[in-house]
Amino acid sequence: MPSGSRPSFRMARKKPVQDGVRVRLANGQSWKDLAEMTPAEIREGSLFPAGFLPLPHPNHPEGGMLFPKFHIDEIKKQEARDLSRFDLDYDLPDHFLPEFPPAIYLTTRPDLGDVSQGKLVTMDNFHELFKNALNPKQLEGLRLLVAPFMQQQFNQTDDRRSVRPSRGVACFDCHANGHTNASTHLAGDVRPQEFRHRLDTPTLRGVNIQRLFGSQRALKSVEDFTEFEQRAAYFDGDPVLATKKGVNILERGSQVHFMAEFQALLDFPPAPKLNILGRLNPSLARESELRGEKLFFGKAQCATCHTAPYYTDNLMHNLQVERFFRPQTVNGRMASADGPIKTFPLRGIKDSPPYLHDGRLLTLDDTVEFFNLILELKLTIDEKADLVAFLRVL
């Protein structure tokens, strides 16, 4: 078991949740000392933790879709379709990623619990698993979500990044089981290349309660997101390359609608300690969790953006992290301003590592330290531990 895992805290299908702060400080620094400094002092002293800088793609000048090996292996086993690239591999260790395959919960059939039966949903098994739980439109939407289509790095042209001509990728190759496997890509809406943002694949759980889609783009509906992915994101925002490589133009009135209808059924995992308003039931919660809830809605200011019951305000916010460091190039990525990013829901957050829009924060402890510094909260060691305890039960 990797160092730092705590078996008493587990994801929905029992993968251990990693704990502890994994970001390293400069020699002689402590989190307490750092939190006492102003952003300008941290910037001028070059003391901002390197692990808090924007995370580059494993090969930032090249970019493109990249999948964890466990997903590559399972797709190869089920469909004989190869998602490996000949030019680079995924970079984050498996124990920092979501469990695989993840559970699936449906808003329409909560009585079924996890409907995945412990399987990765693919073209091979989707009908068998869902034929008795979905209506025909939803089943067709799911079929389209597991169907592979041409993509920038995975296609049949001579500038692909797979050894053999590829059938492409499916929506659920990143959003595994309607959740996430932490596949990564670069945002298509920024140029030049070194300024493009790495994207950590967000979960699709709870899209029915969301009103903005895409971490940077502020798309206004899941239908917009579904269509945008196929027309633009799959091809780095280049419609000329999309035409060359075989773009799949989805029909908005039927195919996009069917896909969105299924996505809207994907529910958050159960949170037995929360009441119907998304707050802790005092008779079920531990003291540390109750203290963490009080901090979340008080001193820590988390609820300013992450409002109950789903812990999102459905808005974009600019954290202005760049006030803590000078612009610098990190492995081909120009670390500067992130700009506005989406407030993602925190329901089920322990199941969705790594954190922030680019995956730079490996644990919830890292995340609390990050926001303690960025928001200048000056939380104590015990307060930070209580806040993490509350986040784990959401």
| Largest beta-sheet characterization | 2 strands, antiparallel
Overall radius of gyration:
21 Å
- Provide mean pLDDT, rounded: 95
Structural class: alpha+beta
Q: Beta-sheet strand percentage?
A: 5-15%
Number of domains: 2
Q: Residue ranges: pLDDT <50 for 5 or more in a row?
A: 1-7
The number of helical elements comes to 11
Number of strands: 8
Q: State the end-to-end CA separation.
A: 25 Å
Outline type? globular
Task: Describe the fold and architecture.
It is a single chain. The protein is α+β, with helices and mostly antiparallel strands. The chain folds into two domains: 5-53 and 272-392, Cytochrome c-like domain (Cytochrome Bc1 Complex, Chain D, domain 2, Orthogonal Bundle); 69-263, no CATH class. Helix content is 25%, strand content 6%. It is built from eleven helices and eight strands.
Task: Write a concise keyword list for the protein shown above.
single chain; 394 residues; alpha+beta; Cytochrome Bc1 Complex, Chain D, domain 2; two-stranded antiparallel ribbon; globular; disordered N terminus
Give the SSE layout.
Layout: E1 5-10, E2 16-18, H1 31-35, H2 39-44, H3 69-79, H4 126-130, H5 136-145, E3 184-186, E4 198-200, H6 222-231, H7 239-245, H8 252-263, H9 287-296, E5 316-317, E6 328-330, E7 333-335, E8 341-342, H10 364-374, H11 381-392
Antiparallel strand pairs: 1-2, 3-4, 5-8, 6-7
